[in-house]
Amino acid sequence: MHMLEKSIDLLINSYNSIGLVNHREGEKLPSKDSIAHILYSLDELIFPGFRETTGIEHTDLTLSTPEKIYHIAGELIRDVEGSIAFSSRNGSFSCGREGCHAAAELIVRDFFEELPLIRSLLALDLQAAFRGDPAAKSTQEVIVSYPGFEAIMVYRMAHFFWTREIPLIPRMMSELVHGRTGIDIHPGAEIGESFFIDHGTGVVIGETTIIGKNVKLYQGVTLGALSVKKEEANKKRHPTIEDDVTIYSNAAILGGETVIGRGCIIGGNVWLTSSVPSNTVVYSRMGEYNEKALK
Amino acid sequence: MHMLEKSIDLLINSYNSIGLVNHREGEKLPSKDSIAHILYSLDELIFPGFRETTGIEHTDLTLSTPEKIYHIAGELIRDVEGSIAFSSRNGSFSCGREGCHAAAELIVRDFFEELPLIRSLLALDLQAAFRGDPAAKSTQEVIVSYPGFEAIMVYRMAHFFWTREIPLIPRMMSELVHGRTGIDIHPGAEIGESFFIDHGTGVVIGETTIIGKNVKLYQGVTLGALSVKKEEANKKRHPTIEDDVTIYSNAAILGGETVIGRGCIIGGNVWLTSSVPSNTVVYSRMGEYNEKALK
Amino acid sequence: MHMLEKSIDLLINSYNSIGLVNHREGEKLPSKDSIAHILYSLDELIFPGFRETTGIEHTDLTLSTPEKIYHIAGELIRDVEGSIAFSSRNGSFSCGREGCHAAAELIVRDFFEELPLIRSLLALDLQAAFRGDPAAKSTQEVIVSYPGFEAIMVYRMAHFFWTREIPLIPRMMSELVHGRTGIDIHPGAEIGESFFIDHGTGVVIGETTIIGKNVKLYQGVTLGALSVKKEEANKKRHPTIEDDVTIYSNAAILGGETVIGRGCIIGGNVWLTSSVPSNTVVYSRMGEYNEKALK
Amino acid sequence: MHMLEKSIDLLINSYNSIGLVNHREGEKLPSKDSIAHILYSLDELIFPGFRETTGIEHTDLTLSTPEKIYHIAGELIRDVEGSIAFSSRNGSFSCGREGCHAAAELIVRDFFEELPLIRSLLALDLQAAFRGDPAAKSTQEVIVSYPGFEAIMVYRMAHFFWTREIPLIPRMMSELVHGRTGIDIHPGAEIGESFFIDHGTGVVIGETTIIGKNVKLYQGVTLGALSVKKEEANKKRHPTIEDDVTIYSNAAILGGETVIGRGCIIGGNVWLTSSVPSNTVVYSRMGEYNEKALK
Amino acid sequence: MHMLEKSIDLLINSYNSIGLVNHREGEKLPSKDSIAHILYSLDELIFPGFRETTGIEHTDLTLSTPEKIYHIAGELIRDVEGSIAFSSRNGSFSCGREGCHAAAELIVRDFFEELPLIRSLLALDLQAAFRGDPAAKSTQEVIVSYPGFEAIMVYRMAHFFWTREIPLIPRMMSELVHGRTGIDIHPGAEIGESFFIDHGTGVVIGETTIIGKNVKLYQGVTLGALSVKKEEANKKRHPTIEDDVTIYSNAAILGGETVIGRGCIIGGNVWLTSSVPSNTVVYSRMGEYNEKALK
Amino acid sequence: MHMLEKSIDLLINSYNSIGLVNHREGEKLPSKDSIAHILYSLDELIFPGFRETTGIEHTDLTLSTPEKIYHIAGELIRDVEGSIAFSSRNGSFSCGREGCHAAAELIVRDFFEELPLIRSLLALDLQAAFRGDPAAKSTQEVIVSYPGFEAIMVYRMAHFFWTREIPLIPRMMSELVHGRTGIDIHPGAEIGESFFIDHGTGVVIGETTIIGKNVKLYQGVTLGALSVKKEEANKKRHPTIEDDVTIYSNAAILGGETVIGRGCIIGGNVWLTSSVPSNTVVYSRMGEYNEKALK
Lengths: 295, 295, 295, 295, 295, 295
Description:
6 copies of one chain form a homohexamer. Chain A is an alpha/beta fold. The first copy, chain A, is built from 7 helices and 15 strands. The longest helix of chain A has 36 residues, at 97-132. Chain A is globular, with a radius of gyration of 22 Å.
């Protein structure tokens, strides 16, 4: 089929002129499938036996745990190193090949040492989910079937890499779980313990959001920015939610100076751009509607 | 890289102290991948040739059908048995190893005998989708590209297991299709024939919802609860939607005593917490907005 | 387990009576997995190295590019041919086996020749995303982690097949990326250059929507129809959005005659069913709500 | 790399001029991988749990057995049908498309009904191997590590298809196990019960060989033809070995009229082209050699 | 295809009556695929980068080595435990579940600690092959393309398990490499350093063979037994080959008391059943043949 | 299982001290799996449809042929380049990184342009096999089930690379097919058209063998060397076989000056170290043996 030859030449020309080829233009950046594979393996490392079909019954955790850790470490170091090198070229600091690799090793080591702490936090989130949803019959059910819990699990790992200023990887992680759950938690957000999101589709939590303990969100809640100007990228643009707040479905809370005080309840569909004092109930006037009989 | 040894020890300690390992603590619970694989196979069993790349042209359905059924049965019995045993340990009844296995076999047998009925219901849902969307060009298009239809297909299977009081599996099924479609139908809901959901992202249908025949929903519709107290877990907390109702995008209908009467049309973004008599049109006052010219 | 034999017979009877088997009833229609595989391969062809784990470092693009094109061409021609034959049977024109195959070859050839143009458009969309989101740190980050960008990439390919009147395939493509991103862009929509969707979950863009250049949408925006009558399937049912418009989260703009003029800003949650003149800011009155202190 | 285009054209020309393309020239013949896959599955069907890594512990044989049989049946019917159609075109009888398919179904059904008998014969072969080799510690060891036993297992299945005059498939089966074991048993040979081949590499047993009960062969034994003229293809060209014969390594017994009588022992490296009466020991004079001291 | 149901019943009956099902009758014995997978992984562990397609360039051996060891250890412990338990049931000693597992762990630990020694021995074998074959251009060529070297590599591992009296596994290992190379070295043989087998097809080395240093064998050599009586299973039945001996193709040396003295050269096709003093050349009288002119 | 840590350290030390790691010590040499995959793909390229299970029915050869060629070219160029660089470092010539790559590209291009010629030669070999074996029922049967034919196919490709002085790859190819067939043809041998090997196990054809047209060999034939001294590596060490010669099973013909004249027939088990004039029949005196009656 010689007629495809023209398109082959055109496409190769396009690679040469426009670029956007990983990684002819510089460092080898992580690929989507690579980060997806790492996340999948981490899921199984954190809650052994709940993800993969083959159970763990005959497998001694003292053998499978180091095997998994060494395996994931190899992949993570490669991708963290590529991301650091990318950042080094574009940013304010720089590391040579040796230096970037050494930095990647240290960060990955720290990450694995943090995992038991992340497990402890997730155990609290699990309790919050179980308490917070009358439909939940067991904590095991939460692990295997709550998208909100899955999103929080990934957030807690992605946030680690964000705090180490690794580019790309934390956002790729949060986007992967956004794709699976419809819940978009920016890895830069700071979220306290015992956090619960129910149903979750459409939830957006922006980069500079701060969330306290025992907060509960429903589907479609936006914790967003008022301003989307590029030059304000380094400002706090998203709200602060204090401890023990509940926010019902499709509410939007916007702005970096907006603070929802401790113990508030924000009703469904409420649209808030200013602060609310502690222990306040806010409910929408959307309940107002018109009716007419058909014919 | 000896520096990973510390994290290995910490993580194994965490498994021992916090647990959350399937299944060192008891029954072998189903894994996410296992239920995902079962659902995938059931999809191909219900509409042969529409899911897998390899078509069925050379394959005699009289051979491939029993092959698939025996295959899925093996996996389902294992997972249903684990779930029943889990339930037996935590719940009000109990079965020994033999008993749980025998019960699982009976339930799986009943499930396969119900499949032709489910196909018949789905054929009606298919017609409803085709009639209900002007953009639909054929029923085949609905099978291969309507997320609402996929969600209903999975719901009708998950509901079977819910009615048999199998824990975990029905919720895992509904959550898998929630992840793919953004449509969250609790398997406990009761939904009549010829049901159609268009676009679907963000739809939430709660555990005790009752939906009649010929109901049509759009994206973002919530059929939810007013109360989320754990102690009301066994009450009817979600609304009743009678036959021939249409509910437009992002409407929220809440509460176990809320009844939307036969033939109603609920407009987009309407927020309802009380009943509406039959044949009523309800529309939001959200159309009201402010305008100003840009400089 | 003889008790499964009854269900085998019942299911085969159901295939014979209800049908819905691809492709015993006619042409071999594309399967979901087939189109998914094609889309995956096209993703890697458009931005080499960003999708698959194995990088492209040692691979000469002059070898891998023709390999991929010939591979995808084989699959696409098969599925386009099946779709054309299906359309030929049901529609107003008809092609024989030879004719359908030849037509499929030509369309696939044209598609590959269009790919460099699609890459150029996507390079502009990429710039729009980078400029439009203060959180975006690089264009590479947009490629690997922006669902809005992924949805646009697939739209631009699916739209090609839509304009060639190929049934099923464009809708299957748009639905696959809808599943991954929660963004539902009908392949029939016409969308200008430098388009950006942020977060994206819940966005719906209908079949006859027309969108100009430099338009920006946020999550939950609906560009929908007022009428969903089957007999109006061939009318323009969805709005027109002119150049340089921004539409914030959860706004709904409905109706085929609704035109949002150049340079407008539509606020979050606005519900619009009529046109807005150029350079107008529209904001919801949803900001109005009630408060009460908790005991 | 435009320089490959010339070779592409040359190769396609070669396909058109020389042919040898399955199956542009006629029936779809079985492929090597297809028969290899069927044999692999049959191995696991005959001795469940000894071949595949995943054991059968949790799998009920009443589920896995029909699953495997239906699966293999689908593949076998396809390949038997192709082979029959090929034979129909070239041979003395002919079947149309329907007829070839129906014939294939009957043969495959008969094959599966013969499997229990084949298992019984193999149980006897197993005993013969265990008794015949002082190094054998258990019958299980014979199943998992005796190439001679593997070759006999495949022979007993291939012979079934040979007796039904199916072309290609029996020879492909015997060649697959020849490749793995170095033992070349033509599927046309007739071999009695309790047969044992030790070590096995280099054994050749020709098409018209007849072997009685309790025969034992060592590596490198040839039971071959004296004449290799094409026109004698339908004559008995290979020897007859009566009951209770042992033939040591690298012996060659040639000719269709050569009969080794009951109870004979044929020594290593013996080269025989004529019959031997019952209960005779034949030993080579090869023991004669020359010696000289080095330096 | 109801006609398969009879064969399903017959086959399940056969499983119940004849058995030969792993592992309904007792311990879970290793499967062929399991040992094959372990051997494959060990190959890559011993000579990293020479077996798998993906090289090791980007992989730090300090990560990949522990990953591989923990992985293989998990599989080996399971299979060694099953084999020990099998042996425990049939043999003279016995271990309970805990005891068999603990024993398996110790043996596997010892095996991994022996691997560096095995590597050192293989480095000597490699030199012997390079020196011994004029066609060998490099030691790398020997690693990647000498079947004799592959057979020795597997022998040196299988022999470890043999000396620990693990049943099944060593024989399965030697049989796997016999299948690939045509070289059948019983794991019970004792073979000194710097051993080389050229070409190798048809070589048989029996269970009680003893081979010194710097021995070289060619294809088809048998080091076999004179007696194959079951009751002599515990006697030395195979020959002793002292240091620096070369044995040419197809020679057979038989008998437990046959000793080939240091420095001997045994010619092709020689058939020896008695000892040969050191530094002797033995050559066959097979060079004698008859000639006649054609026509 | 901390007890594995010692073995990890020991093994890493062994890598550092002994080496034998591909490719920390230099060029990236081809791996066994890589060459195996290339050979597999070439098999399917040469005789489309006879190897892979998925037939070629729906696949246009004008699409699948370039796809396969570009795919194999990418792999071959990588491995040829590594081999050339290895040779460059150790041998008498040298190429830099650019130069080795360019050389690899040219050799691979030439290889693909030679493939149609190789197909033509194989078509003649196919005819020779069909004519030469009374048991062969069709040429298709030869393609799918004659190990001799498979060995010749691989030889004809490996020989191409040998003549281009590429190290490792031709030997790896010949060894792969040796493993599958027991036939060991050194890629340096020169073999004329219409060559046939029947059964084949144990055949050895040495590096400097020359074989004319229409030659036929049986299992176990050795065409070998008399001298195996390293310093004679560059001499002709193996025999010359002229046109129309037949050599029966297990005959050995040795020595670089041994010439078997045109039209000779060499009987089974003959051991020849000197030349034979044309049209001579040579037969062994092995037919002589002793007999005695049992008891």
